[in-house]
Amino acid sequence: MKPYIFITRKLPEQVVARLTEKYEVKMWDKEDEAVPRDRLLLEAKKADALLTMLSDSIDEELLSVGEKLKLIANLAVGYDNINVKAAAEKGILVTNTPDVLTDTTADLTFGLLLATARRLVEAAEFVKEGKWQSWSPLLLAGHDVHHKTIGVVGMGSIGETVAKRAKGFDMNILYHNRSRKPKAEEDLGAVYCSFEEILSQSDFIVCLTPLTNETKNLFNQESFKKMKKSAIFINASRGAVVNEKDLYEALINGEIAAVGLDVFEKEPISANHPLLQLPNVVALPHIGSASIETRTEMMHLCLENIDLVLSGKKPKTPVTH
Protein backbone atom coordinates (compact mmCIF):
# COMPACT_ATOMS: atom_id res chain seq x y z
CA MET A 1 0.00 0.00 0.00
CA LYS A 2 1.31 3.45 -0.95
CA PRO A 3 1.96 5.98 1.85
CA TYR A 4 -0.95 8.43 2.18
CA ILE A 5 -0.57 12.21 1.99
CA PHE A 6 -3.35 14.66 2.78
CA ILE A 7 -3.12 18.31 1.67
CA THR A 8 -5.38 20.75 3.52
CA ARG A 9 -5.98 23.12 0.55
CA LYS A 10 -6.42 22.55 -3.14
CA LEU A 11 -3.08 23.03 -4.88
CA PRO A 12 -2.48 23.08 -8.66
CA GLU A 13 -2.62 19.55 -10.04
CA GLN A 14 0.62 20.06 -11.99
CA VAL A 15 2.47 20.88 -8.76
CA VAL A 16 1.19 17.82 -6.91
CA ALA A 17 1.73 15.50 -9.90
CA ARG A 18 5.33 14.81 -8.90
CA LEU A 19 4.12 12.76 -5.91
CA THR A 20 1.09 10.97 -7.29
CA GLU A 21 3.07 8.09 -8.81
CA LYS A 22 4.79 7.17 -5.56
CA TYR A 23 2.07 8.08 -3.06
CA GLU A 24 -1.66 8.22 -2.57
CA VAL A 25 -2.42 11.93 -2.47
CA LYS A 26 -5.69 13.57 -1.55
CA MET A 27 -6.46 17.27 -1.30
CA TRP A 28 -9.22 19.26 0.35
CA ASP A 29 -11.17 20.43 -2.67
CA LYS A 30 -11.55 24.13 -1.79
CA GLU A 31 -8.83 26.70 -2.44
CA ASP A 32 -10.18 29.44 -0.16
CA GLU A 33 -11.91 27.53 2.63
CA ALA A 34 -10.29 25.79 5.57
CA VAL A 35 -10.76 22.06 5.89
CA PRO A 36 -13.32 21.36 8.66
CA ARG A 37 -11.85 20.17 11.93
CA ASP A 38 -13.64 16.82 11.92
CA ARG A 39 -12.39 16.09 8.39
CA LEU A 40 -8.84 17.08 9.34
CA LEU A 41 -8.89 14.74 12.34
CA LEU A 42 -10.19 11.93 10.14
CA GLU A 43 -7.46 12.48 7.55
CA ALA A 44 -4.75 12.78 10.22
CA LYS A 45 -5.70 9.34 11.49
CA LYS A 46 -4.99 7.83 8.04
CA ALA A 47 -2.11 9.98 6.82
CA ASP A 48 1.61 9.34 6.73
CA ALA A 49 2.16 13.05 6.01
CA LEU A 50 0.10 16.24 6.14
CA LEU A 51 0.71 19.37 4.12
CA THR A 52 -0.82 22.13 6.23
CA MET A 53 -1.53 25.86 6.25
CA LEU A 54 -1.19 28.41 9.06
CA SER A 55 -4.94 28.32 9.63
CA ASP A 56 -4.85 24.58 10.43
CA SER A 57 -4.55 23.87 14.15
CA ILE A 58 -2.11 21.00 14.55
CA ASP A 59 -2.54 20.49 18.28
CA GLU A 60 -1.99 17.62 20.67
CA GLU A 61 -5.43 16.15 19.91
CA LEU A 62 -4.67 15.89 16.22
CA LEU A 63 -1.15 14.59 16.75
CA SER A 64 -2.51 11.91 19.08
CA VAL A 65 -4.92 10.53 16.48
CA GLY A 66 -2.19 10.60 13.81
CA GLU A 67 -0.97 7.09 14.54
CA LYS A 68 0.90 6.82 11.22
CA LEU A 69 2.04 10.43 10.94
CA LYS A 70 5.69 10.94 10.14
CA LEU A 71 5.65 14.55 8.97
CA ILE A 72 3.75 17.85 9.13
CA ALA A 73 4.88 20.06 6.22
CA ASN A 74 3.68 23.62 6.89
CA LEU A 75 3.24 25.93 3.88
CA ALA A 76 4.71 28.94 5.70
CA VAL A 77 7.87 30.10 7.39
CA GLY A 78 5.95 30.38 10.67
CA TYR A 79 4.67 27.36 12.55
CA ASP A 80 2.84 28.74 15.59
CA ASN A 81 -0.20 26.75 14.43
CA ILE A 82 1.67 23.53 15.27
CA ASN A 83 2.47 22.10 18.70
CA VAL A 84 6.07 21.38 17.74
CA LYS A 85 6.98 20.07 21.20
CA ALA A 86 4.15 17.52 21.18
CA ALA A 87 5.06 16.49 17.62
CA ALA A 88 8.68 15.91 18.64
CA GLU A 89 7.60 13.81 21.60
CA LYS A 90 5.61 11.60 19.24
CA GLY A 91 8.47 11.35 16.74
CA ILE A 92 6.64 13.42 14.12
CA LEU A 93 8.84 15.76 12.08
CA VAL A 94 7.76 19.33 11.29
CA THR A 95 9.03 21.35 8.33
CA ASN A 96 8.43 24.89 7.12
CA THR A 97 9.36 27.02 4.09
CA PRO A 98 12.05 29.52 5.12
CA ASP A 99 14.24 31.58 2.78
CA VAL A 100 12.20 31.03 -0.41
CA LEU A 101 9.72 33.74 0.62
CA THR A 102 12.13 36.32 2.07
CA ASP A 103 12.29 38.78 -0.83
CA THR A 104 8.61 38.47 -1.69
CA THR A 105 7.51 39.11 1.89
CA ALA A 106 9.93 42.03 2.18
CA ASP A 107 8.47 43.52 -1.03
CA LEU A 108 4.96 43.27 0.38
CA THR A 109 6.00 44.70 3.74
CA PHE A 110 7.63 47.73 2.18
CA GLY A 111 4.72 48.09 -0.24
CA LEU A 112 2.35 48.12 2.74
CA LEU A 113 4.49 50.81 4.36
CA LEU A 114 4.34 52.94 1.19
CA ALA A 115 0.60 52.38 0.75
CA THR A 116 -0.10 53.40 4.35
CA ALA A 117 2.21 56.42 4.34
CA ARG A 118 0.98 57.80 1.03
CA ARG A 119 -2.66 56.78 1.51
CA LEU A 120 -2.64 54.84 -1.77
CA VAL A 121 -5.63 52.57 -1.06
CA GLU A 122 -7.71 55.48 0.19
CA ALA A 123 -6.75 57.54 -2.87
CA ALA A 124 -7.57 54.74 -5.32
CA GLU A 125 -11.01 54.30 -3.79
CA PHE A 126 -11.50 58.08 -3.83
CA VAL A 127 -11.10 58.07 -7.62
CA LYS A 128 -13.20 54.92 -8.19
CA GLU A 129 -16.05 56.32 -6.10
CA GLY A 130 -16.20 59.48 -8.23
CA LYS A 131 -15.15 61.79 -5.40
CA TRP A 132 -12.30 63.44 -7.31
CA GLN A 133 -13.92 66.68 -8.41
CA SER A 134 -10.95 69.05 -8.27
CA TRP A 135 -7.30 69.33 -7.28
CA SER A 136 -6.19 70.96 -4.05
CA PRO A 137 -2.74 71.29 -2.46
CA LEU A 138 -3.40 68.92 0.45
CA LEU A 139 -5.79 66.50 -1.25
CA LEU A 140 -5.09 63.08 0.35
CA ALA A 141 -1.67 64.29 1.49
CA GLY A 142 0.25 61.58 3.28
CA HIS A 143 3.70 61.25 4.81
CA ASP A 144 7.11 61.15 3.15
CA VAL A 145 9.05 57.91 3.42
CA HIS A 146 12.44 59.00 2.14
CA HIS A 147 14.98 60.20 4.72
CA LYS A 148 12.71 59.14 7.59
CA THR A 149 13.61 56.69 10.36
CA ILE A 150 12.44 53.10 10.15
CA GLY A 151 12.53 50.84 13.19
CA VAL A 152 12.49 47.12 12.44
CA VAL A 153 11.37 44.91 15.33
CA GLY A 154 12.50 41.36 14.51
CA MET A 155 15.62 41.54 12.34
CA GLY A 156 15.54 38.07 10.83
CA SER A 157 16.14 37.47 7.14
CA ILE A 158 12.91 39.26 6.16
CA GLY A 159 13.72 42.17 8.47
CA GLU A 160 17.19 42.55 6.95
CA THR A 161 15.70 42.46 3.46
CA VAL A 162 13.15 45.15 4.37
CA ALA A 163 16.08 47.21 5.70
CA LYS A 164 17.80 46.88 2.30
CA ARG A 165 14.75 48.36 0.65
CA ALA A 166 14.67 51.14 3.23
CA LYS A 167 18.30 51.93 2.41
CA GLY A 168 17.23 52.65 -1.16
CA PHE A 169 14.86 55.29 0.21
CA ASP A 170 17.70 56.91 2.17
CA MET A 171 16.05 56.00 5.44
CA ASN A 172 17.78 55.85 8.81
CA ILE A 173 17.57 52.23 9.94
CA LEU A 174 17.10 51.20 13.56
CA TYR A 175 16.47 47.63 14.62
CA HIS A 176 15.70 45.53 17.68
CA ASN A 177 16.36 41.82 17.78
CA ARG A 178 17.32 39.05 20.20
CA SER A 179 20.82 39.13 18.74
CA ARG A 180 22.93 41.76 17.02
CA LYS A 181 23.29 41.70 13.22
CA PRO A 182 26.86 42.86 12.47
CA LYS A 183 26.49 42.42 8.70
CA ALA A 184 23.37 44.61 8.58
CA GLU A 185 25.14 47.17 10.73
CA GLU A 186 28.16 47.21 8.42
CA ASP A 187 26.38 46.97 5.05
CA LEU A 188 23.27 49.02 5.75
CA GLY A 189 24.31 51.28 8.59
CA ALA A 190 21.59 49.72 10.74
CA VAL A 191 21.76 50.74 14.39
CA TYR A 192 20.86 48.33 17.19
CA CYS A 193 18.43 49.86 19.71
CA SER A 194 16.34 48.86 22.66
CA PHE A 195 12.65 48.25 22.03
CA GLU A 196 11.81 51.50 23.85
CA GLU A 197 14.22 53.47 21.65
CA ILE A 198 12.64 52.00 18.52
CA LEU A 199 9.21 53.11 19.71
CA SER A 200 10.21 56.66 20.59
CA GLN A 201 12.59 57.43 17.71
CA SER A 202 11.04 55.78 14.64
CA ASP A 203 8.74 57.36 12.07
CA PHE A 204 7.84 53.88 10.83
CA ILE A 205 7.76 50.90 13.19
CA VAL A 206 7.77 47.62 11.26
CA CYS A 207 6.94 44.44 13.16
CA LEU A 208 8.48 41.26 11.74
CA THR A 209 9.03 39.30 14.93
CA PRO A 210 7.86 35.68 15.26
CA LEU A 211 4.98 34.94 17.62
CA THR A 212 6.27 33.55 20.91
CA ASN A 213 5.19 33.74 24.53
CA GLU A 214 7.48 36.75 24.86
CA THR A 215 6.16 38.62 21.81
CA LYS A 216 2.44 38.03 22.27
CA ASN A 217 0.77 41.44 22.79
CA LEU A 218 4.20 43.09 22.52
CA PHE A 219 2.51 46.06 20.89
CA ASN A 220 -0.03 47.26 23.42
CA GLN A 221 -1.37 50.44 24.99
CA GLU A 222 1.96 51.18 26.66
CA SER A 223 3.87 50.64 23.41
CA PHE A 224 1.64 52.88 21.31
CA LYS A 225 1.81 55.70 23.87
CA LYS A 226 5.60 55.73 23.48
CA MET A 227 5.42 56.25 19.71
CA LYS A 228 5.44 59.60 17.95
CA LYS A 229 1.98 60.96 17.15
CA SER A 230 3.12 61.00 13.52
CA ALA A 231 4.33 57.36 13.65
CA ILE A 232 3.05 54.74 11.25
CA PHE A 233 2.90 51.14 12.47
CA ILE A 234 3.23 48.18 10.09
CA ASN A 235 2.64 44.54 11.07
CA ALA A 236 3.56 41.76 8.63
CA SER A 237 4.46 39.11 11.21
CA ARG A 238 1.64 37.60 13.30
CA GLY A 239 -1.59 39.22 14.42
CA ALA A 240 -1.32 38.17 18.05
CA VAL A 241 1.85 40.23 18.49
CA VAL A 242 -0.51 43.22 18.60
CA ASN A 243 -3.30 43.98 21.05
CA GLU A 244 -5.89 45.05 18.48
CA LYS A 245 -8.14 46.81 21.00
CA ASP A 246 -5.20 48.93 22.18
CA LEU A 247 -4.23 49.63 18.56
CA TYR A 248 -7.75 50.82 17.78
CA GLU A 249 -7.73 53.11 20.82
CA ALA A 250 -4.33 54.52 19.83
CA LEU A 251 -5.64 55.37 16.37
CA ILE A 252 -8.89 57.02 17.42
CA ASN A 253 -7.09 58.95 20.16
CA GLY A 254 -4.49 60.24 17.71
CA GLU A 255 -1.58 58.60 19.51
CA ILE A 256 -0.24 57.31 16.19
CA ALA A 257 -0.96 58.43 12.64
CA ALA A 258 -1.79 55.27 10.70
CA VAL A 259 -1.36 51.52 10.51
CA GLY A 260 -0.79 48.91 7.80
CA LEU A 261 -1.68 45.32 8.63
CA ASP A 262 -1.19 42.11 6.68
CA VAL A 263 -2.06 39.93 9.69
CA PHE A 264 -4.72 39.80 12.39
CA GLU A 265 -5.29 37.99 15.65
CA LYS A 266 -8.18 36.00 14.16
CA GLU A 267 -8.12 35.28 10.46
CA PRO A 268 -10.00 35.78 8.26
CA ILE A 269 -11.06 39.07 9.82
CA SER A 270 -14.72 40.13 9.92
CA ALA A 271 -15.71 43.10 7.76
CA ASN A 272 -17.26 44.57 10.91
CA HIS A 273 -13.95 44.62 12.79
CA PRO A 274 -13.47 48.09 14.37
CA LEU A 275 -10.07 48.61 12.74
CA LEU A 276 -11.58 48.24 9.27
CA GLN A 277 -13.89 51.17 9.90
CA LEU A 278 -10.98 53.63 10.15
CA PRO A 279 -9.68 55.48 7.07
CA ASN A 280 -6.07 55.44 8.31
CA VAL A 281 -5.91 51.63 8.37
CA VAL A 282 -4.64 49.68 5.35
CA ALA A 283 -5.64 46.04 5.76
CA LEU A 284 -4.50 43.10 3.63
CA PRO A 285 -5.56 39.42 3.77
CA HIS A 286 -2.24 37.90 4.91
CA ILE A 287 -0.61 37.95 1.48
CA GLY A 288 3.02 38.52 2.51
CA SER A 289 4.42 35.71 0.36
CA ALA A 290 1.62 35.68 -2.19
CA SER A 291 3.32 35.93 -5.53
CA ILE A 292 2.71 33.14 -8.01
CA GLU A 293 6.43 32.36 -8.21
CA THR A 294 7.02 32.25 -4.45
CA ARG A 295 3.89 30.36 -3.46
CA THR A 296 4.68 27.75 -6.12
CA GLU A 297 8.23 27.42 -4.79
CA MET A 298 6.85 27.03 -1.26
CA MET A 299 4.56 24.23 -2.45
CA HIS A 300 7.46 22.46 -4.14
CA LEU A 301 9.55 22.74 -0.97
CA CYS A 302 6.76 21.20 1.12
CA LEU A 303 6.38 18.34 -1.34
CA GLU A 304 10.14 17.81 -1.47
CA ASN A 305 10.24 17.56 2.33
CA ILE A 306 7.40 15.03 2.28
CA ASP A 307 9.09 12.92 -0.39
CA LEU A 308 12.41 12.95 1.49
CA VAL A 309 10.88 11.92 4.81
CA LEU A 310 8.64 9.21 3.36
CA SER A 311 11.70 7.88 1.49
CA GLY A 312 13.56 7.53 4.79
CA LYS A 313 15.75 10.61 4.32
CA LYS A 314 16.18 13.83 6.27
CA PRO A 315 13.94 16.77 5.33
CA LYS A 316 15.44 19.85 3.72
CA THR A 317 14.00 22.44 6.14
CA PRO A 318 13.21 20.83 9.52
CA VAL A 319 11.81 22.85 12.41
CA THR A 320 13.62 22.22 15.67
CA HIS A 321 11.94 22.93 18.99
From TrEMBL:
One of its GO terms (molecular function) is oxidoreductase activity. Its EC number is 1.1.1.-. It comes from the Bacteria. Pfam families: 2-Hacid_dh (PF00389), 2-Hacid_dh_C (PF02826). The keyword Chaperone does not apply. Residues 5-319 form the D-isomer specific 2-hydroxyacid dehydrogenase catalytic domain. The keyword Oxidoreductase applies. Belongs to the D-isomer specific 2-hydroxyacid dehydrogenase family. PANTHER family: 2-HYDROXYACID DEHYDROGENASE-RELATED, GLYOXYLATE_HYDROXYPYRUVATE REDUCTASE B. This is D-glycerate dehydrogenase. It comes from Robertmurraya mangrovi.
